[in-house]
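Let's sit down with a protein and look at its sequence and fold side by side. Once you have written the record down, we can walk along the chain together.
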Amino acid sequence: MNSSKHTELANHAWSVADLLRGDYKQSDYGKVILPFTVLRRLECVLAPTREKVAEIAEQHKDSGIDPDRFLRRASGHSFYNRSRLTLKKIAEDPQSAAMNLQVYVGAFSDNAQGVLERFEFAQQIKRLDSAGLLYKVIGKFTDLDLRPEVVPNHNMGYIFEELIRRFAEQSNETAGEHFTPREVIQLMVRLLVAPDGDALQLPGAVRTVLDPACGTGGMLSAMDDLITEFNKDATVEVYGQELNPESWAICRSDLMIKGQDPENIAFGNSFSDDGHARKTFDYMLANPPFGVEWKKVKDEVEHEHKALGEAGRFGAGLPRINDGSLLFLQHMISKMKPVDVNGGGGSRLAIVFNGSPLFTGAAGSGESEIRRWILENDWLEGIVALPDQLFYNTGISTYFWILTNRKSPDHKGKVVLLDARDQWQKMRKSLGDKRKQLGSDHIATVVKLYGEALAAADNTEHPLHDKVKVFRNEDFGYQRITVERPLKLRFEVTEETLAALEASKPIQKLPQAAALADAFKSLMDTSWDTKQEAWLALKDAVVQAGGTWPTGAPFNKALREVVGVRDPEGEVQLVKGQPEPDGELRDYENVPLGEDVEEYMKREVHPHVPDTWIDHTKTKIGYEIPFARRFYVYEPPRPLAEIDAELKALEAEIEGLLGEVTK
């Protein structure tokens, strides 16, 4: 089926909006159109065995035996409908349409009813009936031919995605929260599976696949298709979890029709209610929403982090509350199969991220610690930079992260960075923020280059040598050192000093505070180079005025804050014989992991600021992946003569245009 055909079918389904206008808000059209499309698809799939199933249901009506397995066998699917009713028959009796439709839906097997319940279908039946629209809507869908021989499962996915995209536009949502562009999925699954091609072709191959943010199930379907493309006899078991009820229902119905177990698609939040706890998988892939906060599940996530630590999913660290992307990655890593002593087992996973997880978070932060955990465990195989404007809901740059706990020997300790940002073609018509797409040639080019990345990076003659780079894991690590400079002060009494004295709480608590202020006035506009000189002069002034000099560290500290003034030529302040650091001059440097920090200071810092030192107690290890910086190519500015010539040409052109206007 070509794209125009599935667009035509989607248009037919969406034409129901003309009936709903006035009784429904635009943002609610999808609440009717999506479940009726699912219902019609289920009906078309079951049509060839409808009579046979109804007969068996009649035979077992009063037998006292649960006929479920007989009905499944008769239908040829994991679901069935016991009724002889059809949408066409229901539409022909407008007066009884609501009652008959409820009977018809109630005759479905429990798994199919569960799908329709997530759409709150019963409420829509009641609302449509009250508006006198139910039989008209049903009549529209009876004309929609969704038989599998006309609309294969793969193309049915396109129809659902097109309907969801329109629903999202009407309801001010983002379609990207529900599904990923198909060509992006194709690239993703091929990068994920390509290294395992030989193993997948072995007889009796069985593979499990998980998408913890599965939307309508596009990624799961693509993985199923690709694995069976390698081996048509392979068994592929797909699992997923989805938070959005409509997307969950569509994904589940798709699996039912394909003969997969719909119970493998869990409903709910993957963080707070893991639908696949204690399970592991051969492959995992996901496109979690970008930059979405995880405040709603904060208590559950933090509890698991603190109570279970590394025994739980989030032991490595917690990212900032406004972006849960790295939580998804940790969740997926926790479900990797262990590698056995013979090198068997293990998992591969791919996830779509924006640029934030590459570098957000300083050394010691949750994000940095998660990256450190991944790299130090040698799980990150590669990162692929994609073109911008590739997704429906964002035009920003995106990246595939590909991880595995069974790297090939030549990949161990290494990370591949592949720049595919120029692999795209312009779309004839934009869809939301999506203005670019990956052609089949682009997908083939990227998959091939990723497979030969190590050789391409080593071979300067390779045509795409500049598009791939290979680094050691530790190349992304750094030591964040704290560079201190000594506190240097001169001491003086001025109007500002007296004002600061009156504002100093530690000094104002003293009974002789007023006497101190009066005594200091006699030293107005006096300055000293050293603290000792200043303290002697101040103390003499207080004693001569008949006062007593306070003692104690709090007083001395407060007094220094009042009369001390930072001065690059001032006296270095000491604490236990060592220079006291000046917090206002404190700076930080990121030193590559493995480099001697003292040598770095001698080379990079001391020539400019010789009196600095490192506070080693504050050194932290951090990890970041500055992808764009690794591929940056310096472009020198154009010569001034060239720019000047261009400006003169523009001036001449403007003068010519103005001359024509004034004629």
Summary: The mean pLDDT is 92. The first strand starts at residue 206 and ends at 211. The radius of gyration is 35 Å.
